[in-house]
Amino acid sequence: MSTEAIHAATLTLDTHVDIRWPDPPDATQETDRCVDFPKMARGGLKGVVFIAYVPQGRRDDASHAAAAVRAEAMLRHIRGRADGVMRRFCASAAAIAAADAAGAQMVIAAVENGYAMGRDLSRLALWRELGAIYVTLTHNGHNALADSAIPRPDLGDPPEEHGGLSPLGRQAVAEMNRLGLLVDVSHVSKKAMLDAVAASRVPVVATHTCCAALRAHPRNVDDEQLDALRATGGLAQITAVASFLREGEKGRPTVAHVSDIADHVDHAVKRIGIQHVGLSSDFDGGGGVLGWANAAESAALTTELVRRGYDAAAVGLLWSGNFLRLMRAAEEAAS
């Protein structure tokens, strides 16, 4: 099978793409964003998890309430991007498979930063009702749920606040398990990540990360963390953020290539097995490398993986198969 045929036959799913907020553009038209529906079509990218991202802010009641309003407005907007025919909104693994079978583009939603929950666990049920499939516990900066891998001294963060997950964070993980929301451990500290792995009844996912063994960065997972994911059935999704992939020259922007993504995939696969590794871009949130700079170039990543010896089955696991396994596990645990 040719590389082109493998890419065309694969359910290609990018599990972390930001949207502009406020004033998001019409994604049905060509835009200045890395991801819109025309670019997805040209690149053979069949589905995208669009992110309701809320930046970390002050932890008072008013700020938490404003963050919740933003997250929920974004979730409603993401759902509205689907027309039900050419683009289907999907909140389950079965819906994704059905959309793929129908040849429709898949619109999926998630929340980045549990800060938007504040201290109100009931928000999680609302987010699930609005179609979210995962919640990233933190962003940059500690919140009420967990310590972040990148504290925010400008917001008063010490290097460590909770020593991992907070008691509320443990309750949130249990509630996410109950609701069928995947726990995303991207952005959390190592201690918080290992706490979440231990606390969750469902395998956890790092939706956008890279390997610390190849690039020392606080956002990357080290081999101990990779091993913990393997031991519990979890997943590390290698992402296209240049500074996570390689160290740049001092004083210059870091430049990475699609081959750097494949290097990190290779390391993770050798360490923990193909079943625990996936792909994401973090487009429009800092992601983009030479060769895979936007959704229209998505086939280039498949080409690089096939060049390195990954067959059609392995490419399918990396692009979506492993992530869909976790979605099904979350749904089964909830049911």
Architecture in CATH? Alpha-Beta Barrel
Distance between the termini: 39 Å
What's the overall average pLDDT, rounded? 98
Percent helix range: 40-55%
The main β sheet shows up as: 6 strands, parallel
| CATH fold-level topology | TIM Barrel
Shape: globular
Kindly state the number of beta strands. 9
Model regions low in confidence, pLDDT < 50 over at least 5 residues: none
Helical run tally = 12
**Beta-strand level of the residues, as a percent range?**
5-15%
Walk me through the topology.
Elements: H1 3-9, E1 13-18, H2 37-43, E2 47-53, H3 61-80, E3 87-89, H4 93-102, E4 105-112, H5 122-129, E5 132-136, H6 167-179, E6 182-184, H7 190-199, E7 205-209, H8 223-232, E8 235-238, H9 242-245, H10 258-272, E9 277-279, H11 299-307, H12 312-334
Parallel strand pairs: 1-2, 2-4, 3-4, 4-5, 5-6, 7-8, 8-9
Helix pairs in contact: 1-11, 7-8, 10-11
InterPro entries: Metal_Hydrolase, Pept_M19
Protein name: Membrane dipeptidase
Task: Explain this structure.
This protein has twelve helices and nine strands. It has 335 residues and is an alpha/beta fold. The protein has one domain (3-334): Metal-dependent hydrolases (TIM Barrel). Strands 1, 2, 3, 4, 5 and 6 form a six-stranded parallel β-sheet that branches. Strands 7-8-9 form a three-stranded parallel β-sheet, sandwiched between helices. Strand 3, helix 4 and strand 4 form a beta-alpha-beta unit. Helix 7 runs parallel beside helix 8 and helix 10 crosses helix 11. The chain is globular, with a radius of gyration of 18 Å. This is Membrane dipeptidase. It comes from Plastoroseomonas hellenica. It holds the Pfam family Peptidase_M19.
